[in-house]
Write a structure and sequence with these properties.
single chain; mainly alpha; N-(1-d-carboxylethyl)-l-norvaline Dehydrogenase, domain 2
């Protein structure tokens, strides 16, 4: 049982992890494929944070992150600036809610859409 608080406990953890994963891509720390692979293989998560964000919809994840940042005053929930820029430029995507792993898949089942990296300014 968890106490009454904004956001579900699992959602709060997932949003914090997802926002940090996006920041890491934005700063060039690691590729989206490597971040997801690290969480799947290293922490035994069934799915990486970036692919999970794509399934939920990046627009939804950003909205929840904004909400949690505002009501809890916790900056780690704040979506990185590159995300709003990317969503504004996402007219070339059939579904602008799609995100990092929307590209052609490779042998590991991951596919980073290179247009996302360009639009976000990721290194």
């Amino acid at each position: 049982m968890v106490n009454d608080s904004p956001g579900f406990a699992s959602s709060r953890l997932g949003i914090a992890l997802g926002m940090e994963a996006i920041r890491m891509v934005e700063k060039g720390v690691a590729s989206p494929e490597d971040i997801d692979a690290a969480m799947v293989h290293g922490y035994r998560h069934p799915i990486g944070p970036l692919r999970f964000g794509d399934l939920v919809g990046l627009d939804v994840r950003l909205s929840v992150g904004d909400y949690l940042c505002r009501v809890l005053g916790a900056e780690h929930f704040r979506p990185p600036a590159c995300c709003s820029v990317w969503l504004q430029r996402a007219s070339w995507v059939e579904n602008p809610a799609k995100g990092f792993m929307s590209g052609k898949t490779n042998r590991r089942g991951l596919g980073v859409d290179p247009r996302v990296l360009t639009a976000t300014g990721a290194r």
